[in-house]
Amino acid sequence: FYIVYSFDGILAFGLLFICTCAYFKKVPRLNNWLLSEKKGVWGVFYKAAVIGTRLHIAVALSCLAMAFYIVFLK
Length: 74
Fold this sequence. Notes:
Elements: H1 7-26, H2 28-34, H3 43-54, H4 56-73
Helix pairs in contact: 1-3, 1-4
């Protein structure tokens, strides 16, 4: 549970959230259900999906760096 309450855990959660929302954008049924709202609380999912699809190279490299950090350095 230590990773949940640390800055590393917040970064890992954010990266996984962005990657998951970007994946949801590629699935038509989930895209219509979860990413249809662009404002409000549900708009966070849409905005994370947009970040994940537009900055996919940077997000992928960040995920690899975070995985290396968690597995080997922590």
